[in-house]
Amino acid sequence: MSVFFLAMNHIYKSFSRVPVLKDVSIQIRPGEVHALVGENGAGKSTLMKILMGIYTADSGEIQIQDKTVQIHSPQEALHLGISMIHQELSPVPDMSVSENLFMGREIRRNHLGGLSVVDQKEQIRQTRSIFESMGVQMDPKALMRNLSVAQVQLVEITKAISLSSRIIIMDEPTSALTEKEVHTLFEQIEKLRRTGVGIIYISHKLDEIFRIADRISVLRDGELIGTYAAAELSKNALIQLMVGREITAVYPKIETQRGAVALEVTNFSRGTHFRDISFQLHYGEILGIGGLVGAGRSELVECIFGITHPTAGDLKIEGQTVRIRHPKQAIGHKIALITEDRKRTGLNLIESVETNIAVVILDRIAKLGIVDAKKSAELTDTYISKLNIRTNSRGTKMYKLSGGNQQKVVLAKWLLSEPDIIILDEPTRGIDVGAKRDIYLLMGELAKAGKAVLMISSEIPELMGLADRIIVLADGRLTGEILRKDFSQERIMQYASNMNDEGESV
């Protein structure tokens, strides 16, 4: 008998005669963490969707314990002991946490007359029990629409783990989690591997991969480059395998000239979300905002952009006090916001690349309600080329693009609006090293061109690598400002944890 619980052998897959997977074979041992890495568009998600029965391979076979199986749906995959935590989260927003957790496998009890009804109390009880065992603090009765991205991710992780699968696919499971939550997840992974569960772990966070992976399979342009023992690879060697070239500087810092104050926030507050925030953003600089998940960073920039409204404080653009009550007004003031959740707030996934890119400038390319198709196509093609967006055509539907290319479309859309102030909230969440570098270079070029760039990131090395200054939020308050010459991970974490030099809360 084979030592592998799962084998995918010689998998081929094409879309519209464009090959996406070419003779890919991977094998998963019981109790191993098997990392699957590669740039966005390398074929990782397609391969996993074949395993989950979402797509059908053109050729090749799947074996479980040496027996060839056919998987035509996620339900069949679950029956065979395979579950998946998807990168793009798709909860039912108007259902509770416990209802989402047990969706498709509801706990039922007989009612009067022999009718079977969902036992909500028991589902809530079991949800609490599962959360307690995992160290997750969350109300089982809370509606999914009221949760943060990190909380939704934790629900999806909990659901997959609670299914008692033999193989769990984790696609970017930590993209929105705090370090504490990542630690909790890794503890659960250790428990699972001790019981013989195999983990297929997809992540662009290479530090995580080297922390937990036993073996690493590398995909590039739909082909398997190789499978390696994690202990035998360095980070630089892995990057070179992934991108086919050496990336000498992970965080390319472009020198810029700081200009006048573009945006000034004074004593900005919004209820309990954030209080008394004051800072300046200059033209020609990248200002980083650090802090833990829940510190109020996203809430702050949403308020600046007019999605929500402050309860106190002033906002000035080029020295003039403004009142922004709607995103359209923010756009009129030449502000752009790239949100952290591209799926929910950045894109229309069922529309084309062109439709998504051109939507912000319809007033410029339309007359009497009729869009200038030639102008729209020209502008779209220009930005596809400029941002190196990998797509078959401008007419390709957004859901067919990888996460990194979707993010580039969001950037293209906003750059077309010709903003002077660009706000990026977790701009590289779930994006591979190659695409990250493209976005880093773009941010640097924007600052060099005199744009004012405001960037939120939970990755401290990213903040330190790109920002000219960093302000840090904790519990809704600004706890510190650090100049580039004084950057250190320890200092950022000190401010993010709201600790003084002696490690005490302030």
UniProtKB/TrEMBL annotation:
Predominant subcellular localization, coarse grouping: membrane
Q: Which Pfam families match?
A: ABC_tran
Record-level GO cellular component terms: plasma membrane
User: What membrane topology does the UniProt entry give?
Assistant: Peripheral membrane protein
Q: Which UniProt keywords apply?
A: ATP-binding, Cell membrane, Membrane, Nucleotide-binding, Repeat, Sugar transport, Translocase, Transport
Name where it's found: Cell membrane
Q: What InterPro entries does the annotation carry? A: AAA+_ATPase (IPR003593), ABC_carbohydrate_import_ATPase (IPR050107), ABC_transporter-like_ATP-bd (IPR003439), ABC_transporter-like_CS (IPR017871), P-loop_NTPase (IPR027417)
Give all residue intervals belonging to the ABC transporter domain: 6-246, 254-500
Keyword Glycosyltransferase among UniProt keywords: no
Q: Name one GO molecular function term.
A: ATP binding
Kindly provide the name given to this protein in its UniProt entry.
Answer: ABC-type sugar transport system, ATPase component
Native organism taxonomy:
Bacteria, Bacillati, Chloroflexota, Anaerolineae, Anaerolineales
